[in-house]
Amino acid sequence: MMRKTFEILWNTLKLAVQELGKNKLRTFLSLFGVTIGIFCIIGVLATVSSLEKNIQDGVKSLGSNTIYIDKWDYQGGAEYPWWKYVNRPSPKLIETKLLREKISADINIVFNFSTQSFIEYDNNKLDGINYHGITEEFDKIQPIDIQYGRYLNQMEFDYGSPSIIIGYDNAEKLFGNPEKAVGKEVDLRNKKAIIVGVIRKQGKSFIEGWQFDQSIVLSYRFMKQMLFNERFNNPKIIVKGPENMSTDALKDELKGAMRSIHRLGPVEEDDFALNAISDFSKAVSSLFGSINLGGWMIGLLSLIVGAFGIANIMFVTVRERTPIIGLKKAIGAKKRTILIEFLLESALICIIGGLIGIVLVVVMAQILSSAFNFPIFVSANILALAIVICVSIGVLAGIIPAMIAAKMDPVVAIRSK
């Protein structure tokens, strides 16, 4: 029984391929709609998923279960009320100690401030370099992968020693070989510093985040020696809660603690913002969900047009093969055999059209990846989805012609012209 089934399937596939070869123009017109539909859907899904992954990776790089306490709300928007936030007090180092005393959970907490300036070595000067001044627990919230050398040690944090770690791109531009950067003395704003480590290359991201490739990282106390007033250099407090504590629970505790530290009355508004990384991730997922929906709508429209084309081909095919269908039924072919034969042929046409669409997407992805230096990938899930869509459209488009063929009277079919 199994062998007979495989023979029927194999013969059906051979017959379908032969028919496609005989009617090239008709086949092309039918495949075109499916090809465009799959190209639109898979192209949009691949591009959007690649873009979303890049952005989500950038968001995750800011820390998991992490909240940034700042005077600025990071949500942004067209009607961002900057005038409401500009006069708020900037976070202060002393507040990290007060928060630790007031929060019951075991948290990691960091004070950070940033600025841009230059770094110079042997008359080779780089401008617009990001300076990140940090306190001790930074690597517990935002791990830094050191490729050469080492991370800052506790003594350097305690005494504000002139030691820095440098981003890969900066080290490459200054020294050619980043490994040679370790141990070199460089000029910063009004200080000299020793490079003790080089951060592993991160690559480009749509989220600015920390952008370590173009940065230097130094202790808070050392960076403070170079600045007139830290409140003009984006100070912020970064808090990471324990794994068993939800972001909402951490937010609630931080809000109560910060209101107490700032001595705000019950009716006074918060003069600080709690920016949770998980909120950014949800917003990104929501945005890209809408974009994916648009891609589906465009693609489905093309697939519907393609499905009608394939249905038309199958009606014509059934009419052309009516005597053959009658002969098959006369020698014992069952209804389900005829039904499966035409459904397989219809699905095959769709799969061929889908494969052409997938090939076009892969070619487009390679071209765009090279042109924009941004990786676009077609995942196995997307490929599987494309095949499922093709088979489904093929079955739906061919079901009525296949049922007509299966129900034919063998005598009438044989005698037809």
Considering DSSP H and I runs of 4 or more, what fraction of the residues is helical?
55-70%
Element order: H for helix, E for strand: HHEHHEEHEHEHEEEHEHEHHHHH
Q: List the uncertain runs.
A: none
Major sheet description:
10 strands, mixed
SS-based structural class? alpha+beta
Tally the beta strands: 10
What integer is the average pLDDT? Answer: 82
Gyration radius (Cα, Å) is 32 Å
Termini separation (Å)?
33 Å
Number of separate domains = 2
Strand content: 15-25%
Number of helices: 14
Name the overall outline.
Answer: elongated
Care to describe what's here?
This protein has two domains: 191 residues, no CATH class; 212 residues, no CATH class. The two termini are 33 Å apart. The longest helix has 44 residues. It has 417 residues and is of the alpha+beta class. The model has no long low-confidence stretch (mean pLDDT 82). The protein contains 14 helices and ten strands. Helix 1 crosses helix 12.
Short account of what is shown:
The chain has 14 helices and ten strands. The protein is of the alpha+beta class and 417 residues long.
Summarize this structure as a short list of keywords or feature phrases.
14 helices; 2 domains; 417 residues
Chart the SSEs and their pairings:
Elements: H1 2-22, H2 24-60, E1 66-70, H3 82-85, H4 93-102, E2 108-121, E3 124-134, H5 138-141, E4 146-149, H6 154-159, E5 163-166, H7 168-175, E6 185-187, E7 192-199, E8 215-219, H8 220-224, E9 236-240, H9 247-261, E10 273-276, H10 277-320, H11 322-330, H12 335-372, H13 380-406, H14 410-415
Parallel strand pairs: 3-8, 5-7
Antiparallel strand pairs: 1-9, 1-10, 2-3, 2-9, 4-7, 5-8, 6-7
